[in-house]
Amino acid sequence: MVEHYYRNVHAVVFVYDVTKMASFQNLKTWIQECNGHRVSSSVPRVLVGNKCDLVDQIQVPSNTALKFADAHNMLLFETSAKDPKESQNVDSIFMCLACRLKAQKSLIYRDVEREDGRVRLTHQPDPKSNCPC
Ligand SMILES: Nc1nc2c(ncn2[C@@H]2O[C@H](COP(=O)(O)OP(=O)(O)OP(=O)(O)O)[C@@H](O)[C@H]2O)c(=O)[nH]1
Questions:
Q1: pLDDT (tens place) for every residue of the chain, 133 residues total
Q2: How many beta carbons lie within 10 A of that of residue 87, not counting itself?
Q3: Ligand 1 atom at minimal distance to the Cα of residue 86
Q4: Could you tell me the pTM of the whole model?
Q5: How large is the ipTM?
Q6: 24, burial (CB in 10 Å: exposed 0-12, middle 13-18, buried 19+)
Q7: In angstroms, what is the span from residue 82 Cα to ligand 1's centroid?
Q8: Is ligand 1 within 6 A of the CB of residue 80?
Q9: Does 88 sit in the ligand 1 pocket, CB within 6 Å?
Q10: Which CATH architecture describes the domain 3-100?
Q11: Residue having the nearest C-alpha atom to atom 30 of ligand 1
């Protein structure tokens, strides 16, 4: 059954609760499981700390989460599903993922040139890109 979640996956969002250290510590297990299902390293992954509106109950400091995100090559978003004004909102996570996926597609379909049977990457970063991340 779990296999279905990983088949043809395009992006992975790891979510923890900033008010529960255990949920942050469990991320390692989730990442291992994801890797165990051979999710390609080209599939974008983001880390999301939710419930950041509960400022008095925070157990996972932002810098701890940021180090973890960096170590696993992920962007970190701290969000609140309850209060969109708090920090980054949930929409921006999906905008970021959409942007990354679109950029990858452009690389594959637009920027690969075939010359004399050889593949050459010609991608240049788009200065007009309004990607939020
Ligand atoms: N304050 C606050 N509450 C939230 C937030 N997101 C979810 N909740 C609340 O947390 C409770 C659990 O939400 P669920 O969507 O059921 O999440 P869950 O992962 O199944 O449950 P938990 O592990 O208990 O968080 C509900 O009462 C939600 O209203 C948030 O960003 N801020």
A1: 677 888 889 999 999 999 999 999 999 999 999 999 888 888 999 999 999 999 999 999 999 999 999 999 999 999 999 987 765 678 889 988 998 888 887 655 544 555 555 544 444 445 455 565 6
A2: 16
A3: 31
A4: 0.81
A5: 0.91
A6: buried
A7: 8
A8: yes
A9: no
A10: 3-Layer(aba) Sandwich (3.40)
A11: 51
